Amino acid sequence: MRGKSLSLFGVILLIALFFLQSCQSKPEVKVLQRYFHAVRMGDRTTMGTMALEPISPEFTNWEITATSEEIVEPFVLPELNNKELELKKQVEESVIITMNAKDEVDDALFEMENARSREARRAAQRKVDDLQKKYDETRARHNQVQVDYSNAKDKAAREEKVTSFSLGAGEVPNIRELSGNVHSKEVEVRVALVSGDVKNYKCVLKRYDLRDETLNLHRRGMWKIFRFEVLN
Which long-range contacts (CB under 8 A, 24 or more apart) does 21-28 make? Predict the structure, then answer.
């Protein structure tokens, strides 16, 4: 009797583990079920907590037609933050260099305007031309550094936004100092609309699994929809 009880317990345990593994390996099913239920109910609050850019098609039914393998990549926000800070420093240094180059041009122009002889004016003009060329090159480099800094700043801000969205933990002061991985999957969904048309979407799902080393805290985000792409 004892042997049969242990055997039955083993079977139940295996079934439970299989069910748990199945749920864990297909998070997109649960996420999309909840999302489209919220769409059907017109629950914009729930939709907004599950999708970064929600869509709300009027549909009769939907189904998953394809699912990619889960990809795990390093969390890049700390790297993006360092790049932003590095370029910010370059911009600040470039401002001083560019202003000094402009001052040199202005001083040379002043010398040329006050030159008394033709030869002195010619020499002053050559100096102005050389310094103006140097300033133009310096200014062009400064403009490029400003563009690079603006792009890096925007990229870091976008990554911070999606990280915060996945964590769903409100404001995290040291969010740019966390470490960990980002899990992602792509899912294709066929949606039959009330109008009779069919829309196919590619949904990009992500989950941020991070760690706060300062507080020794595990910040495990939920699977959420980060993008809907219309395929047809």
Answer: 25/70, 26/67, 27/185, 27/205, 27/207, 27/223, 28/64, 28/67, 28/185, 28/187, 28/203, 28/205, 28/223
**In this predicted model, what pLDDT tens digit does every residue of 19-44 receive, in sequence order?**
444 445 589 999 999 999 999 999 99
SS3 label, residue 231: coil
Distances in whole angstroms, Cα of residue 118 to Cα of each of 10, 57, 121, 123, 124: 104, 78, 5, 9, 10
The CATH number of domain 77-159 is 1.10.287: yes
Tens of pLDDT along 127-181? 999 999 999 999 999 999 999 999 999 999 999 999 999 998 677 889 999 999 9
In this prediction the pTM is 0.78
**What CA–CA distance (Å, rounded) separates 158 from 206?**
14
List where CATH 1.10.287 sits in the chain.
77-159
Smallest CA-to-CA distance from 88 within 146, 10, 22 is with 146
pLDDT bucket at 54, cuts 50 / 70 / 90: very high
Indicate the helix (H) or strand (E) that contains 59. strand 59-67
